Amino acid sequence: MVSRYEGGPMIFETCNVSVDFTQANDIDGLVAVYNSHPAFLGQHLNRDTVTGEWMSDEVKATRDAGFWSCKVTAKSTGEVVRLMDVHMDTETYLSLLMVHRDYAHQGIGQEVYGGLEAYARAHQSRSVRIDVVTGYDDRVLDFWVRRGFRAIAETTLEWGGVALSAVTMRRVLDP
Which of 16, 50, 65, 130 is the most exposed place for a label (fewest CB within 10 A)? Predict the structure, then answer.
């Protein structure tokens, strides 16, 4: 894994993907990732699709909230295959990690999370926290449990005017 931090964008690479700060020309790729999950959109945002305008606003809101909006690009094709919103600190907060449906169940999620964890550890983060929406897809919760995350609290998230029941999970990073 290669990593670089220059006081701004996060860049790390794994064998198959690169992770970099989202740019304006990435919006269509991010829209495709979101729109590949109509059940997610219905559950989380009470809508069927998102538009480029919505995505641009979401990236801006993510950045305004202190998070990095990142694209995950397949090295073999140059396509945006996943997106990630993360806030780096002594506790890294992973707000969103979503893979395009066409690339699901191929190990990309594991690879990206492994790269993020190594990156966080190298930048003195002591833990990673996530909020997982419950009642949507139990495989998502199982994914994080298999990565060593433990539930620490129940919470309610609000996104796009929709209240979502969730569980806050944390993984303490080994030094």
Answer: 65
